Amino acid sequence: MRALVVLGATLAVACAGVLFPFILRGKDLLWGKTEDSHIIRILEESRLVVDNAIYNTMKRNLNKREIISPSQLLSFSKLPEPTSRAVSRAAEIMETSVQVMRRRGYLNLKQAQPPTDALSEDLLNMIANMSGCLPHMLPPKCPRTCLADRYRLITGACNNRDHPRWGASNTALARWLPPAYEDGISEPRGWNPHFLYNGFPLPSVREVTRQVIQVSNEAVTEDDQYSDLLTAWGQYIDHDIAFTPQSTSRAAFRGGADCQLTCESRSPCFPIEIITMRDYVPRILGPEAFGRLVGPYEGYDPAVDPTVSNVFSTAAFRFGHATVHPLVRRLDARFQEHPALPRLPLHDAFFRPWRLLREGGLDPVVRGLLARPAKLQVQDQLMNQELTERLFVLANSGTLDLASLNLQRGRDHGLPGYNEWREFCGLPRLETRADLNTAIANRSIADRIMDLYKHPDNIDVWLGGLAENFLPKARTGPLFACIIGKQMKALRDGDRFWWENSHVFTEAQRRELARHSLSRVICDNTGLTRVPAEAFQVGTFPQDFESCEDIPGMDLAVWREALPQDSTCGSPEGVENGDFVLCEESGKRVLVFSCRHGFELQGQEQITCTPQGWDFQPPVCKDINECEDMMDPPCHLSARCKNTKGSFQCECTDPYVLGEDGRTCVDSGRLPKASLVSLALGALLVGCLAGLAWMAICRWARSDAKSSLPVVDGGGKVASPVQEMRTSQHSVPAQGEEQGGDQTERQDTCTLSNAG
């Protein structure tokens, strides 16, 4: 019988092992466990991974606010605003999802095949929608008013009517070549030590800095043509044209999404356009390359995409780091070394705005930029130690290396190698050490580069372009001149509001704009009274300087407008929580209304004056209840959303506090206030009980002391306690009288004790 039971159990286990997969498969079919449901689950898991990483990053930053490292300081300085943060989070969710799909076998990628090519269009749309990317990929709503035809939006959107996201903020950097990632998705070149390029692993970026790029602060060759202001201007417009925000998370998960973001903000200040394209770019590219790569303006071309490219933002336009002088020179009113303001090492100027307030203001610094030469970019003096060893120095918390950051940034952004970009620009590929010597004249530097990279194909594009021989009368080599020239031409020709476009300004206005200069800007905005006529040209005071009275400026009278006069339409009263602007369209008076942030327009955005009066009633501005947005809630699930007039507040329950994003509650690490109150009340109660106990003990001790007083016998003698004890032991009172007397005695003693 026992044998039959064992045999039956064995058959049951075997059958279960055979049938269980079919049971599971049937369950999947029954409940709709299709490929879509697996993708949805992966997206939900990825969202949790990213959100947890973001939460942990904010929690760590909260705990380390008093001890800031250089990397944290760099991160805080690039902290994205809410819209950029939402786009960055969506991109990281999407990238993490693709990584998981690949690990689980949902992507069968061929070599060099983009991951998106392995997914159906329906799945791609699902991923884009669930990750949060889709709303930021759809065309924005563009205003159709007379103002929209005259002024650009601050976001850069709607510049191109057919492609409203071209050149706008919070859009991906343009790819001029396919990205180069070791896993085809996001792993940068050099990530895997076993991954070989032409038979060799890539060198570490820090080793490249030490062996090729870094020199001492004393090894500086000064530029004999251009002032330090040329470097400062390049830094200024670089951060205006292309700015990539810090990742929303720096915690441990596979970050660095393929679609890196740019916070491009095209400035509406037209003199900046003029100074950059007329005065700055020709000096960087050289006159011959500028004429060939950029050329004269021929009008707006709606087919040109002005979006900033990845290679321009990440590599080419960072050539200027090799022209940064290790010293900040501050000069007196006669442009001489200031006796009270010595030269500052660069690391003593980083994040120290108080120096401007306490040490002479802005004018001494501007004089130094005008009258002192820039550092010349020399092949064996690329970057000084102020940038490679002392970037963002903080007390006892380490430093950063700008050269290594630049090299690693190019790898993180998936930039192909040096030779790929030379071929893109129509330049010959470099295959041997001798070939490299033709592009880099300094043989020692060329040999060091080859010793590290082993093959020209392996060289990082930023280093290769930086080390090339200059073009004639230029400050860049042929590769970076090609990339910068191509980008600048696209920014100009693809801009509907470019100042030279005949539909933007009148002939008289363009003539006045052409008279403007950086020297005039300095005269109008500083205390300087003498400046060089060419601000980028290094000069000697006083012979190369002119009085500000002789520097021409713009006559703003040519912008004065005469609105049509009419008697039928008056000016409406002010709009609560909004405003309106007068405009002229087809000879008619027009009002364009707008609401302040946090309010939405209800009614007509634009009204026109007709012979019968305004064609519509003025609109009103209604408060937006952001807390009702379920698709994109303003606060994290950990916080409570409270609507306010024109805005909202994310509130946390104690002991949680808002993180750096202003929408997520993170643990402060302290006890709740209610717990502190409870502890205080508990301590007070314990103190009261201790006091009462002490009082009771003292009273008891006092009572005991009274009861222990010496006994006086009838003869007036004092009986000792021993005698009293003996008396009590050997005296046996009789019942009745003696016993009652003893009770009376004890009663008298208690009365004495109480009286005492």
Automatic annotation (TrEMBL):
<keyword id="KW-0472">Membrane</keyword>
<dbReference type="Pfam" id="PF00084">
    <property type="entry name" value="Sushi"/>
</dbReference>
<keyword id="KW-0349">Heme</keyword>
<keyword id="KW-0408">Iron</keyword>
<keyword id="KW-0479">Metal-binding</keyword>
<protein>
    <recommendedName>
        <fullName>Thyroid peroxidase</fullName>
        <ecNumber>1.11.1.8</ecNumber>
    </recommendedName>
</protein>
<feature type="domain" description="Sushi">
    <location>
        <begin position="567"/>
        <end position="623"/>
    </location>
</feature>
<dbReference type="InterPro" id="IPR035976">
    <property type="entry name" value="Sushi/SCR/CCP_sf"/>
</dbReference>
<dbReference type="Pfam" id="PF07645">
    <property type="entry name" value="EGF_CA"/>
</dbReference>
<keyword id="KW-1015">Disulfide bond</keyword>
<keyword id="KW-0245">EGF-like domain</keyword>
<feature type="domain" description="EGF-like">
    <location>
        <begin position="623"/>
        <end position="666"/>
    </location>
</feature>
<comment type="subunit">
    <text>Interacts with DUOX1, DUOX2 and CYBA.</text>
</comment>
<dbReference type="GO" id="GO:0006979">
    <property type="term" value="P:response to oxidative stress"/>
</dbReference>
<dbReference type="GO" id="GO:0004447">
    <property type="term" value="F:iodide peroxidase activity"/>
</dbReference>
<feature type="binding site" description="axial binding residue">
    <location>
        <position position="321"/>
    </location>
    <ligand>
        <name>heme b</name>
    </ligand>
</feature>
<dbReference type="InterPro" id="IPR000152">
    <property type="entry name" value="EGF-type_Asp/Asn_hydroxyl_site"/>
</dbReference>
<keyword id="KW-0575">Peroxidase</keyword>
<dbReference type="InterPro" id="IPR000742">
    <property type="entry name" value="EGF"/>
</dbReference>
<comment type="similarity">
    <text>Belongs to the prostaglandin G/H synthase family.</text>
</comment>
<keyword id="KW-1133">Transmembrane helix</keyword>
<dbReference type="GO" id="GO:0005615">
    <property type="term" value="C:extracellular space"/>
</dbReference>
<keyword id="KW-0812">Transmembrane</keyword>
<dbReference type="Pfam" id="PF03098">
    <property type="entry name" value="An_peroxidase"/>
</dbReference>
<dbReference type="GO" id="GO:0020037">
    <property type="term" value="F:heme binding"/>
</dbReference>
<comment type="function">
    <text>Iodination and coupling of the hormonogenic tyrosines in thyroglobulin to yield the thyroid hormones T(3) and T(4).</text>
</comment>
<dbReference type="InterPro" id="IPR049883">
    <property type="entry name" value="NOTCH1_EGF-like"/>
</dbReference>
<dbReference type="InterPro" id="IPR001881">
    <property type="entry name" value="EGF-like_Ca-bd_dom"/>
</dbReference>
<dbReference type="InterPro" id="IPR000436">
    <property type="entry name" value="Sushi_SCR_CCP_dom"/>
</dbReference>
<keyword id="KW-0768">Sushi</keyword>
<keyword id="KW-0325">Glycoprotein</keyword>
<dbReference type="InterPro" id="IPR018097">
    <property type="entry name" value="EGF_Ca-bd_CS"/>
</dbReference>
<feature type="transmembrane region" description="Helical">
    <location>
        <begin position="676"/>
        <end position="697"/>
    </location>
</feature>
<dbReference type="GO" id="GO:0005509">
    <property type="term" value="F:calcium ion binding"/>
</dbReference>
<dbReference type="InterPro" id="IPR010255">
    <property type="entry name" value="Haem_peroxidase_sf"/>
</dbReference>
<dbReference type="InterPro" id="IPR037120">
    <property type="entry name" value="Haem_peroxidase_sf_animal"/>
</dbReference>
<keyword id="KW-0560">Oxidoreductase</keyword>
<feature type="region of interest" description="Disordered">
    <location>
        <begin position="707"/>
        <end position="756"/>
    </location>
</feature>
<dbReference type="InterPro" id="IPR019791">
    <property type="entry name" value="Haem_peroxidase_animal"/>
</dbReference>
